[in-house]
Design a protein that fits this description.
This protein has 239 residues and is an alpha/beta fold. Helices cover 44% and strands 8% of the residues. The structure holds zinc ion (ZN).
């Protein structure tokens, strides 16, 4: 159901029957010494594709970059400033609204996107009343957090979490074939927010926020992925 694998006549035909679109968004940013840079958009994208397939809802091309200013002291991170991200997301969402999509479910994989996405939604909705925009932060779904709490306890953490690393072990096992060096130490779990890139690296020196990354596993990834997909599908209701 990915829109980028369709033609325009196929999208036009879909719009005659359905007006819903799933839009996966994430970030390309550091995820500690063992988690891959693409976690936030890859998890959102894979979950979105599975939901789209099961619910027969079209899925937009993923937005792989997000508002990740606080990760900029770690190489490999690509970030858009909050204002730019709001503008980019506003215009992309408006493109699909322009074509006739009336309900857009944004499946998000990155905490830093929540505030600017909410602002983009306000920007779009403020002067019209027809479109329904919904933000689903997959890692906040109760079905997901309950499981993570049960298996990782307080060591799931807040960034480079055991849960999100596990999900990419399931979706992109080829990226985890070679074990990576990891020396566990307890990081700060809370801090004043937001932080600059330099402040973040000083507070969380290897990029993790409170997670014991070695608890991540393919098996947990399979369970969490399935829980997230099923929970979102339930939220969307019957076909
Ligand atoms: Zn992440």
């Amino acid at each position: 159901m990915e829109i980028y694998l369709k033609t325009w006549p196929e999208v036009e035909k879909y719009l005659k029957k359905k007006k819903t679109l799933i839009f996966p968004v994430g970030s390309s940013e550091q995820h500690g010494p063992t988690g891959i840079i693409g976690i936030d958009f890859l998890t959102a994208w894979e979950i979105a594709k599975a939901v789209g397939e099961r619910a027969q809802i079209m899925v937009a091309s993923p937005m792989p970059y997000g508002m990740a200013e606080h990760h900029m002291a770690f190489p490999g991170t690509g970030s858009l400033s909050p204002l730019t991200y709001i503008q980019v997301m506003t215009e992309l969402l408006q493109s699909y609204i322009h074509h006739g999509f009336e309900k857009i479910i944004v499946i998000n994989g990155h905490g830093g996107n929540i505030a600017p996405l909410t602002s983009a939604f306000s920007q779009i909705l403020g002067r019209q009343g027809k479109t329904h925009l919904e933000l689903i932060n997959w890692w906040h779904l109760p079905e997901v957090t309950e499981y993570e709490q049960k298996v990782f306890k307080d060591e799931n953490g807040f960034h480079a979490t055991c849960g999100e690393i596990s999900v990419t072990m399931k979706t992109h096992p080829q990226a985890y074939l070679k074990p990576r060096p990891y020396r566990h130490f307890k990081t700060a779990s809370k801090s004043a927010w937001p932080l600059s890139g330099a402040q973040f690296r000083k507070t969380f020196p290897d990029g993790r926020m409170g997670s014991r990354a070695s608890l991540a596993s393919l098996r947990h990834g399979e369970v969490i992925f399935e829980k997230a997909v099923a929970a979102i599908q339930r939220k969307l209701g019957p076909k």
